[in-house]
């Protein structure tokens, strides 16, 4: 039966099972083969799409199933670009992104207009639309660049931010020219377009986060959370089309809207990236490849002439824009070429604009042939542009991204590298497991191999059910880490005393950070406070973090950070700050510091080196912090740098915070961080800070800790 059915197969393949099998086989084999010869696999997927498509061997047709999955892949690329933007770096580089968008829109537009109007003798509206085709670009190499760990590089941030602006401008030109060709451009047209775009932006950027925050607070199911994200991508894309702009802009705005609600180190982010990179984005590349018709370039010299002008305008214009950006902001040569590589690819918006222009018929010739806004030569030329621009984009972007990544690694190795953190997470209940693991993931430094240890202490007098419960808790912890692609090492320890068991593991595993969850109902009980001051805080070389979780950590809008006077004199101050920085960077939540003027100056110096979104409020006396805590708003989190084991830099009011929190039971997440007081890394520089308040040495510490 199977042989008979294979014998009667017709092309293109119609059987859905066989069709999907062929597509998956391409997605599997092409990257494996091309990685060996160091060719970007996205280029291979484009070529594979052309080979199996209707203009190649006609194995597969570009039907609705291919279009739907391909469209999802395109939306996914734009969504990931918005989702992975570091908002601190984006705000820091916003004027650079605007400048780049002006360059990358204008240079190709001018070259395209000259080619269309003066060389190809198109009409004025057609020349303007023709020129706008080259101003937009598609970030097809963004997933590959991000995987190299340089997504926070200024060149990447500038390019991603500029992409949104230049694509919007290009698609606005398309909307205007289409309206003009249909005699629809007037005051009412401009008012309608402006109002619809503003309404779209307000709905996505203001209402979407409210909906998502409510959903993530009330729905813990991981599958439902992922489906919710995909629904929001499509909803934003539909709203964009209703507003008169392209769906890809909607997907990008959806990424911006959910940016602070999906931590970059979370299991949900890992699922989003995994499904996109494994399925949807490869399908998009294959679907684009199916449009390539190589025979069209041998049928007419005019098609080759149009294609040549399109290539010069697009590739040449993007190169000019990248070099101007590099010179303007004094970027390195590799960063300038990375900008060119990322912005050189023309696919999504270009193809959309060409298809719209091709389908608009302005009239008929004497022979009855339709007169189109963009003729078939432009359509065929755009296909060649997509192939060549994506090829150039792949090679240039990846080669320069790898050089930048190698330089970053060499700088880290050459410098006084900070040791990897060993974070211990004692867990004694299923309810706290996910909360503690999620915070541990946020505290990790992604550029280092920080280790996470999940610990459960079993008292010697406990029964068999306690052993099974411990195994269940640790298994859950390991799975939660694996979902975020992070290894959590489980430790089961039998001991008569919990404090002694934890302290022994700290010594055995060289623990640098101890993260403990606080039970909401018990709070700071008498027994816990005794264990705190007579047990956990005796480990003077370990940062101690106490965590009370009222809501999912991804739904915290902002963290209020309280830092006592003279805190910078403490040996563990900068390492404690680095944990706060990691939480802000990995969650996207801004920080609001309440501290003294001299510490604010230090924080500004850190932000210049490692940008996060932060604001500062000076306080004169520590007594003011009670009111700051009382004024916490819903969805704000609290972080307090606590008394450092009664050392000289802290005054007695800091000790009252535990009492205040215990008595008032605030309905906010809070972290109490006790920096370490002694360490093997307690260098002469740190002693100089303690004795002389040497701000030059403080600068050296900032460079070492905040990489």
Number of helical stretches of at least 4 residues = 27
- Helical content, roughly? 55-70%
- Parts with pLDDT < 50 across at least 5 consecutive residues: 646-652, 687-692
Trace the largest sheet across and list its strands.
Answer: 5-4-3-6-7-12-11-8-9-10
Task: Characterize the largest beta sheet: strand count, sense, and whether it forms a barrel.
Answer: 10 strands, mixed
Molecular shape: elongated
Rg over C-alpha atoms, rounded to the nearest angstrom: 29 Å
Structural class: alpha/beta
Strand content: 5-15%
Q: Quote the average pLDDT.
A: 82
Number of strands: 12
Distance between the termini: 63 Å
What would the keywords be for this entry?
single chain, 707 residues, alpha/beta, ten-stranded mixed β-sheet, two-stranded antiparallel sheet, 27 helices, 61% helix, 9% strand, elongated
Descriptive account of the structure:
The protein is elongated, with a radius of gyration of 29 Å. The longest helix has 39 residues, at 376-414. The protein is 61% helix and 9% strand. It is built from 27 helices and twelve strands. The chain has helices spanning 2-7, 16-36, 41-52, 64-83, 87-92, 94-119, 124-132, 142-147, 154-181, 187-218, 222-242, 247-258, 267-289, 301-329, 333-344, 348-359, 376-414, 430-443, 464-483, 498-508, 526-534, 573-587, 597-609, 625-630, 656-664, 684-692, 695-705; strands at 361-364, 370-372, 422-426, 451-458, 488-494, 513-517, 543-548, 558-562, 591-595, 614-618, 636-641, 670-674. α25 (656-664) links the parallel β11 and β12. Mean pLDDT is 82; it is low at 646-652 and 687-692. With 707 residues, the chain is α/β, with parallel strands linked by helices.
